[in-house]
Structures are given as structure tokens and as C-alpha cells.
Write a structure and sequence with these properties.
By secondary structure, this protein is α/β, with parallel strands linked by helices. The protein is 33% helix and 17% strand. The chain contains 9 helices and 9 strands. Strands 1, 2, 3, 4, 5, 6, 7, 8 and 9 form a 9-stranded mixed beta sheet that branches. Helix 1 packs parallel to helix 3 and helix 8 crosses helix 9. The model has no long low-confidence stretch (mean pLDDT 97). Bound molecules: SN-glycerol-3-phosphate (G3P) and magnesium ion. The site of magnesium ion has 3 residues, from strand 2.
Length: 244
């Protein structure tokens, strides 16, 4: 059955990538959570989407130029809730580990290389004994290849907003296990070929009911959505859609 992964936590209703959004995601009973990580000036792994803090907090500047202490003084609620701090990856796992869900850690290395990010992320995953519950993804293949060299057993998914002629062979050549396409690039034959090859297809970010139903019917491995409650309700309506 297709898994439902909460994009940046339950970001459709709560401030993205905050402990509040993660707690609400867990409360839905969804299968997993997707989050984005960057490295601070003092080498800490923090959960935030953009390279800059400007869009999602009341501060300004690059994450890489600020210490954790400076970052955690900011309010990441966006006025949608009581004040929220930018969480560390450790704070996320402290909350999420008991829920036993899958965590999709997106390595945001597209603009800055964040030397050592992959090592630090893997150390944290190991410290929380989450090796079998994580999947890494990135738009930056180089970052995934670095992760594979550190943790060959860790599943890694290539994020892609554009059209890839033959994603199966690209993944095979790179030694990756999953394809994370923009949802409008998904086709039935892509899903069949991937699944026949034992590869995952995890589209982002379908949010409307028609698209979610279409992807669930195709049998993608997971949907990465802002509205996990809606996705699970739609999944229950499909044949065989009730969780065992
Ligand atoms: O990992 C899926 C999705 O999060 C990728 O795009 O920009 O939301 O991080 P973005
Ligand atoms: Mg992301």
C-alpha cells in the first residue's frame, strides 16, 4: 500500500519544519515525515527548508552564517501558531523516534555544499538507532553519493523536478534506490518500470484530492504531501485501502 509521508511535517496546517508540525504529523498516524536539513555556522544540523531564514522566521540571513543559539532565538511560527523554534535534527528524532515512522531527510545541498553535512546527519541517525527508518533524498546527486560512501546500506532517493529520459537506469548507474519526481512528471509506465526493478517512486508534493487518488491508484511507493489526513482518507476509499 502506498505510504503517506508528511511534507515538512503537517505543513498544510502548521508552520513547516517545526516540532509542532512534526507532532501533528505523528498524531495523524501517517507513515512518515519529510524534512529538510542545513548546517549552521557552528556545525549543527538544523531543520529548515531555505538557505535563508527570511521566509519562515522573523529573522534575516543565511543559516550557514548563524550559530545554533542565534537561530534558535528566531520565531519559526510564521504567525500561524504560538512561537516555534527552528529544531535541530536531534530534537526532531527525540520527538519522532517513539512513533516508529519513516523519516525522509532531504539534504539541502543545492546552493551550499555544507562540508561534512552527510557525516553529521548519519552520526545523528545512528545515535537514535534510526538506520532502518530513514531515507535520504536530494536534488544534488553528489550529496547522495557522499551519503552512500558513508552509509552504503542507507536508501537514497534522487529528487528531480524535470524530465529524466530513463530514471531507472540513472538510478542504477548511480547506485540509488528511489526516485522522487515532481508529481506532475509521474507516468504509469514510470511507476511500473521502477517497481519492476525494485526501486521506489516517491512523488512530491501532491495535495489535491484528484492527483492524490491518481497517484495512490498507480501504486507509487509513497506520496509526500502537505495534507496527510486527506491522503490517508483517500487511501481508505481505494480497493484494499484499509491498513492491516
Ligand atoms: O522532498 C520532497 C520535497 O520536499 C522537495 O522539494 O522544495 O519542498 O524541499 P522541497
Ligand atoms: Mg523537502
Amino acid at each position: 500500500m502506498t505510504q503517506v509521508i508528511c511534507h515538512r511535517g503537517y505543513s498544510g496546517r502548521y508552520p513547516e519544519n517545526t516540532l509542532l508540525a512534526f507532532r501533528k504529523a505523528i498524531e495523524t498516524g501517517a507513515d512518515g515525515i519529510e524534512l529538510d536539513v542545513h548546517l549552521t555556522k557552528d556545525g549543527k544540523v538544523v531543520v529548515i527548508h531555505d538557505e535563508r531564514v527570511d521566509r519562515t522566521t522573523d529573522g534575516t540571513g543565511f543559516v550557514k552564517d548563524m550559530t545554533l543559539r542565534e537561530l534558535q532565538r528566531l520565531d519559526a511560527s510564521g504567525g500561524k501558531s504560538a512561537p516555534q523554534r527552528i529544531p535541530t535534527l536531534e530534537e526532531y528524532f527525540s520527538l519522532a523516534v517513539p512513533a516508529k515512522l519513516r523519516t525522509n531527510i532531504e539534504l539541502k545541498t543545492g546552493l551550499f555544499d555544507y562540508e561534512g553535512l552527510e557525516e553529521r546527519v548519519w552520526d545523528i541517525v545512528r545515535a537514535f538507532h534510526q538506520e532502518d527508518r530513514v531515507i535520504f533524498s536530494s536534488f544534488h546527486a553528489q550529496s547522495l553519493l557522499r551519503m552512500k560512501s558513508i552509509a552504503p546500506e542507507a536508501p537514497c532517493g534522487l529528487l528531480c523536478s524535470g524530465q529524466l529520459a530513463d530514471p531507472c537506469s540513472t538510478l542504477r548507474e548511480l547506485g540509488l534506490q528511489a526516485f522522487h519526481p515532481w508529481f506532475l512528471r509521474v507516468t504509469g509506465s514510470m511507476v511500473r518500470r521502477m517497481r519492476d526493478s525494485g526501486l521506489e517512486v516517491n512523488p512530491y508534493t501532491p495535495n489535491d484530492p484528484a492527483t492524490l487518488t491518481w497517484l495512490l491508484s498507480l501504486g507509487v511507493t509513497s506520496v509526500i504531501t502537505n495534507y496527510p489526513g486527506q491522503a490517508m482518507a483517500l487511501r481508505r476509499l481505494l480497493p484494499g485501502g484499509t491498513k492491516a
